[in-house]
Each structure stands twice: as C-alpha cells, then as structure tokens.
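Researcher: Good morning. I'm working through a list of sequences from a screen, and I'd like to move beyond sequence-only analysis. For each chain I'm collecting a predicted structure so we can compare shapes side by side. This is the next one on the list. No need for commentary yet; just the structure.
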Amino acid sequence: MKQLSFLIFALLSLINKAQSFELKDKSLIKYYELTNEAEKKIINNNLTEANALYKEAFNEFKHPHAKDLHNSMKVALKTNDLETAYIYYQSLKCLGKNFSDEFLAENFKNPEQYKKQLCQNTIDLKYKKSLDSLFKVDQFYRKVSGGDYVKYKKEITKSDSIASLGLLKLIQKKGFPNEYNIGLEMNSWVYFHDFYLIIWHQLANNSISNQKVNFSKEIEKALNQGKIRPDIAGFLFDLNNGTYDYSYFKIYQFITNDGKIDCCYVNNTFLPDNRTDKVKSLIDNVNNKRKLIGLSSTEDEIKKNIFLLNNKDYVFLSHTIEGFNFKNDSDAENMKKNLIKLDDTPH
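Model: Good morning. Structure tokens for this chain:
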C-alpha cells in the first residue's frame, strides 16, 4: 500500500482529469438543495425544520430516493407527525423494504386511522432477475478466489467483461434501473444496489481486469432522470474515470494486527486554518464539481459522516468509514501524522 495514497497531495494530478458532469433538471436541482438542507437540519437537531424541508422536496420530485424516504420517515416519527410518517412508511414498502411487525406496532399504534396509499410503481421482476444473473457472474470468481484475485485474474477479467457488457446492453434497452422498477436490495442498509458493483469493477485503475465499459454517460443520464443518487453517481464517476473529483474528506480507522480498531481520524486540512492557498483552491474545485451534480460540500459531507458515527437511525451516504491495516505499527503512526483524531477535534 502506498501510505499517502489517500492524502491531499496524492490527488493533485487527478482532480482535473475528468470532464465535469452536470445535473441540469431544475426540479431535481431544487430537490437536492432541499434534501441537503434537511440533512443539515437533522445533524443540528432541527427536526421540525427538516420535516418541512422534506415535504417541500417531495413536491419538487415525485420519486424520492429510498434514503430520503427513510430519513424523512424517521424525522416525521421523531416530531410526532405520524400521518406523514405513515405515508413514507407505505412508500418504502412499495419499493420492497421489509419492516418487522414490531416496527409497525411500536410506531403506529392505530394504523387503521391513517390513509392507505396505493403503490404507484411496478417492480419489473424480469429485469431484476436479469440484473441478479449478471451480479452472480460478477461475483462468482471473486468468491471462489477467497480474496486472492491475482490467482483468478484471467477468470475475473472474463466474467467482468461479460457482466459489464451485459449490463450496458440492458441499460440501453430498458433504461437505468432503480428502486422504483427493480425494488430495494434487502442486504443493503444504505440502499446500494447490487448491480452498482458491476460498474464499480469497471474502475479506470483496475489492476485485475481491464476496463471494458465506462458507464459515465449512462450514469449522467440516470442522474438527470432522478434514477441514481448524486453521492453514488459521484462515487462511480470517480471510479470509472480514475479521479477524486467528488470525494475529499473521509473518516479513517486503523485495524491493528490483533484486531483492535483505532477510530476515528480525518485529514488535518479538515480544519480551515490548516489549508494553504493551493489546498483551498483544490477543495473549492471539488466543491464546485460536487455542486454541479447535486451534492453538498465536502465539508458538509464529513460533518454528516461524523454525525452518523453515533446516529444509526439515518442514512446520508453510501460510504462512511475507510479502514487501513498495516503489518508494522510504525507505518500506521506515520500516516496518522497527517491526520487528526476526531475525539480531539472540535467539529
């Protein structure tokens, strides 16, 4: 591992490498402005204002993402707006989310008093089955390898090609899939679809299998149709193009050889006083690109990530913590010189 691969100066040559993608749909732009503001209200415990912002956002866009329905339901429950919470609960059920009987009983004492909503979406089971088949192809040799991907490089290269080209063909024929036509993945608490991993494995810097498909055009189109969240779109843009245009600050943890976890750290430039003019320019560049696709600033993102460490009721991002493991403790300590531990950091 290159010890400083995640640090600020390792990104200098990559920040401006890819083209700028852009969200142009005015309703979606407004929708993300409102949901981003609602998330800021949540982390500041202004739940009544967050509740109002979600209602306004859902008037702008009639097919809100599952994570926004999830968060808005939690906010409505916490503010005792049970009628609204029940609407969002039903919407999530229409997308295929499983709720326990205890959840219903604990949160809606008399559900018969609330208005029943008919599902407005239809799950395309045939499309879902086709995607699941491609996902199995993508995963087969990765599971067989037991983590030794180099040993199965030839097989993984072939299966990645089959899966990615098959996915591209499906998208071009049937449109970009999302929860409104294929439902939710039951094993993902952050509402991350399995087929995203096929796109993930088409990363530009893949050392195991060469990139066969760059999905950026399909992702940008899906972004403007509201079929993919900006945080996931930005993550996949960066992977497919070998850039760090949409991701800057992350939370890091270190796993020692005896299994102990040392958490949580951020880059020292998280604090504005630690930024040189060059670093500030880089951060501004990233934030401008993030804004173009509907994302909040990287400073706001890290605040949400910090909040999520101790608040598991909500879902803001698809990726919260990045872990590192070193054979030598001294290597970890050298890396930490460029980091600040959150316990010691005012945030």
